[in-house]
Design a protein that fits this description.
With 296 residues, the protein is mostly beta strands. It is built from two helices and 18 strands. The longest helix is centred in the C-terminal third of the chain and has 22 residues. The protein is globular and about 55 Å long.
């Protein structure tokens, strides 16, 4: 018996949606142009921001129990810019110098919601693995003309003020984070998460231009260390941006787990894989087939 197959609109939509969704599976670094908001170039062909190794992280409510949730705060100033090969790019003079003498800074702040997915203990060392369930990050630019104060690690002031260049939302379930505590009270961990530009906000092209889409626009990696050492601070997000809502409430360290965090942000864009092209063409072909059938 001969069977006839008919493409329905639902099938076509499903094929197209699946093809688009799979775009996030591959990413390529994206070079961006970094400026000061007044057409002055700070650095060109920048693929990543290198943050201060004295960046601070705070895990609030963390317990090594599977299924438990906690918040992770982060703040750091950018100390350098790298190209696609990971080589430093010499920026415009004045990075992290006094605002009073023409200096400027970029800072990164974040608030990430995480859930513990596994816990194991071997030879007195306990390792917890977490997955991100939500959260956001922002990039700020500040100088004497931007209305903020220069960031200070010890107090936590000045990291989320000045001009908010962009807001990014975390891709839930992306990447992975882990932290191991040892019997002597020290700890070591690593993080890898992806963020996308927040819908309806975009990134201010007067400061960062060249981003190519909304999938995987900010890729964050870091190492985390206990004790915090030179990253010790008394508070997080103590300032507020100029002309924008304060998305990061002031938070004292309190009883949270304070860590030294050495992070970096790489700008990326989604790249369709070969199978994605095939799937997308199949969806478009089916769409054309349906259109021809309807005309007949």
């Amino acid at each position: 018996m001969r069977k006839q197959f008919r493409f329905t609109p639902a099938f076509v939509l499903g094929a197209s949606t699946l093809a688009i969704a799979s775009l996030a599976h591959a990413q390529a670094t994206t070079p961006v142009l970094v400026r000061n908001g007044a057409s002055v170039i700070i650095a060109n062909n920048v693929n990543s921001f290198d943050e201060n190794e004295a960046g601070s992280g705070l895990a609030i409510g963390f317990t090594p129990v599977v299924g438990s949730t906690f918040s992770f705060l982060y703040q750091a100033n950018v100390v350098g810019f790298n190209n696609a090969a990971g080589q430093p790019i010499v920026p415009l003079a004045g990075l992290n110098q006094s605002f009073g003498t023409g200096g400027y800074e970029f800072t990164i702040v974040a608030r990430i919601l995480e859930q513990v997915t596994s816990v194991s203990t071997v030879a007195g060392a306990t390792t917890a693995v977490f997955s991100a369930t939500g959260g956001m990050a922002s990039i700020f630019y500040d100088s004497a003309a931007s209305g903020g104060v220069q960031s200070v690690t010890s107090s936590g002031i000045g990291f989320d003020d000045g001009h908010q260049v962009g807001v990014f939302d975390i891709v839930g379930g992306s990447g992975v984070s882990n932290f191991t505590t040892f019997a002597d009270g020290t700890g070591l961990g690593a993080t890898r998460y992806d963020f996308t530009v927040r819908a309806g906000t975009g990134v201010d092209a007067s400061y960062i231009s060249g981003l190519l889409g909304t999938i995987g626009d900010l890729h964050f990696t870091s190492s985390q260390v206990l004790p915090p050492g030179t990253s010790t601070t008394t508070g997080f997000h103590l300032s507020s941006p100029t002309g924008a809502p304060d998305l990061y409430p002031t938070t004292p360290v309190g009883s949270g787990l304070l860590l030294k965090v050495d992070g970096s942000n790489t700008f990326t864009t989604a790249v369709p894989e070969p199978e994605t092209y095939a799937l997308m063409l199949a969806g478009l072909g089916a769409l054309g087939f349906v259109a021809r059938r309807r005309r007949k």
